[in-house]
Please model this.
Amino acid sequence: MSAARGAPAGRPDTGSIRTVTGDIAPGDLGWTLIHEHLICSLAKYWIPDTAPDLATAKVSLETLTRVKRHAFAVRDNLVVDDVENAIRESGEYLAAGGRTIVEVTSHGIDRDVRALEIISRRSGVQVIAGCGYYIQITHPRNLEDRSEQSLSDEMIEEITVGVSGTGVRAGVIGEIGVGTYPMHRAERKVLRASARAQVATGAGMVVHSAPGSKESVFEIVGVLERSGALMDKVVVSHLEERFRDDIRAFRRIAATGAIFGFDTFGREIYYEGRRKQHPSDTQRIEMIARLLDAGLGDHITLAQDICLKHELTRYGGQGYAHVPANIVPRLLHAGVPVDAVEAMLSGTPARILTLRPGV
Model:
């Protein structure tokens, strides 16, 4: 049902939010994780030489400690494809107070919108599917030969008509990926096409910058601004890792209108292969408190970016329920006002995800 047909008689249509099972009113969104993966594969990231003895190991409680340190050396860890488990763990999220998951698996990392529809119907969680293309190493071979317009038209069709004849429609643009700084020319083209599709539909956009690079964040934002993107509906992911406690960098992004993705809650580990330590949840909460004090609370969204097997509760991870079950109480204990929590988890996501009336 289109947003226009769904508007009550005599009442102006303010636009709808598009889930894999149909459109909903913005007021029905509820607590929302802005950046998650229910079904995906990061197998193209596999780097077995960093821990050869783990390369073909299975993720289990026995291997968990080493898998977490060598997350990208273990091929099994990079594939999340168990629909039944996704249903169960989504249900845990619902029971903890969550309502909606923005599932930003895009082309290149094994998106499966049919599976998302099944997960949503059986778990009761509202799922919003993504569209577009991830980082260049995951692009199909013909992408560099395609025009910017054809990429934009494809995203618009997936939002308005459906994905590959399934009838299941996307509701957000993303995860749009950039893997290196400077970005690859194909990634730049995808960003520009995404801006076109966003202007046409009013869809929210979720973007991924090069790991560990502040410069990549600013490069992405610059491309989108010059392309006419709706910057106040752009979520720049993983900023707690890219910016850490650099308030000036956050202010610079906020000045464009863009939104901060604090979206790796629960990921507190050190990646041996990448020589990278993620922030702790305590540090994330402290950063959020500082951003609120700086008057930037309406630029914050929350999530966990679960995309690795070891992050699921079945394998000893935090699971999708971590933010509502564990982080919300900690935010409140740290003095974050209830209305600020509601804005981060519901109000701001609803504004980002609401499509143009009639789309």
